[in-house]
Records
---
Amino acid sequence: MTSSNAQSGNLPPGPILLLSKFLDIITLNKWRAYVPFGLTTPPDGYLSTQVPDLSSYYGTESSLLSYDQVPGGIWDFITADSTVLGDVTSPLSLFMVLILVLALRKVKHAVVPIFRGVGRKYGRATHGVEWEKANEERIVKFGEYVFRLIYHSLVSIYGIWYFRDKEWWQFLYGDNGSAACDSSQSCDAGGTK
């Protein structure tokens, strides 16, 4: 970090640092000249702290691989742990996040009307046509809530699957890698009965 705020430990919150890093990448560090009230003036400006590139933590050469250095094509590049996509502040990572957000918005735009139709159908079947007319807002919210439920469930399931072999899950497994206790038994944190 490059300011006296970093040396004194008086840093802005993480989201502010991340936002300033994104603005540094997008505007090539020129946005600070246009912020009023001395917020970006070192050493005491709230936004004067600049977050260095990830490569500065690893030395002069980054250990993260570019697309050209990954054998196997695009899928291996996206799924590998050691690519430049691991640095959330790299322009390529920001571009990939933008693509993911736009793709999720398209999916949501396509499936929420389907969920609203399901809500409308069952609302009409259980409460009648008058209820449907009087509760259009509830039907719209139902479609949104079903999308959120499915999205958060899938993200949670993927997270559990992805981190299934990490250290913090090892208390569930015995020495041979199988579960030490089944769901009908009580186990302590060490995996013993």
---
Amino acid sequence: MTRTALFFVLNWLLSDVVTACLPTHLVRVSEATIMNYALRVRQRFTKPACCCPPALPSPFIGAGSPRPELPPTAVLTLLMRALELNDIPEADAGLKSMWEFAGDTTRFIFKNNISEFIESAHLTAAEHPTSFYGMAMRGQGWEVEGPINMVGGDTDACWIATQVIKTISCDGRMRRWQWELRKNRRPPMLGSWYVESIGSSDRHGNFDIEG
């Protein structure tokens, strides 16, 4: 393949903006060097490798809305997975599900305006890698730590549950998040679990504040 052909390939693989960044001295170097340089430039203009979403299950339909058949443990994993794949199956599907599962406190803060909530989540994720949405939407990964705590015992009468999730940011920093979930005790969502709050640890992963 000639260098001229390579540049046509690069124009096809990369955006015009990215291709324009290729320095003119590349015409004097090897084809392998051109391709390696193009790969580095492309990575610069796309998400970092650590922020790429995981393999997509087939089919993936998102977290949806609260429903009585979902136990609290399933709510956590479905929502975290939905945020990882935020734009699948549609734009901001993950954030829309977070709103559907949000309690009254979150809705009060955003004055029942889902658009403001979504805008705020994106802004926070972009500016603060160790924020919850920065971690959930752009981080390297997450895992559930320990068993869920069903306050008062794992019975039908239990209506509060807590669970800790550990996350790693795109730049390698760690945070833990304590989720508090509550069960709706009246219609129209009777028996379904929702997210009351998500509390952050400090940079060491501790929740206790030393005074």
---
Amino acid sequence: GSAMMKGLPLPDNDVLWSHKGVQGAVSGTCAVVGNSMNLFNAENGDAIDAHETVYRFNREDRRMAHVKEMNLTTIQRYIGKKTDVRFVNRKYTDSLVNGDAAAGDYQPGEVIFFWNLFSASYIKYLTEHYPHVDMYLIASDLVNWELKVFSQLRKDLMSLGMGPFECYRFMSSGVHGILLATLTCAQIDVYGFSFSMDNFQASFNHGRPSESHSWDFETALMRVLYFAGFIDICNA
């Protein structure tokens, strides 16, 4: 834990810490909800919503509902409906800018964090067009800390004989969320993430995964964080 925190520029006053009274790593229970179809292996919606803070990523619920031939209300039995913090990538920044169907799903009270610097030029426009949602660009120092941790853990696993891992351009939104949750949550329960490549391939929610991410390393990272006691994996 101390190695992960080394070099982290902790702010005195930042929205990530101040949201809902959170001060440092004392946010109580957090549900970090990914977009894997393994969410539909159990009706965990109420358990997810019972957490003090719920993290989600992008807007994959419409796609998942389509795949399962369910409506957006029915899938809440599996994925929950509460959202406090949502991490959004470049693709879903475009979705917000273009105002497509998913853009109308963001609810009042959500806090949206953009982690890709591409989104910076759109923040002013988006906050004007979606005044009911709080939107922020994650500070570059914090993203750099995430990348440092991610890269060091990747190097450490390779030194232990794991890999080789696929190259990557970006960390996934899910990894951004989990790493930041380690700073703000006393307990992290993870739903809808893959913890092996077999699980990933069987549970991806559409045909072609992004080639920008190192999915083989990220699934290995989930196992490492679990065995190190940083997260609990709540997939059925």
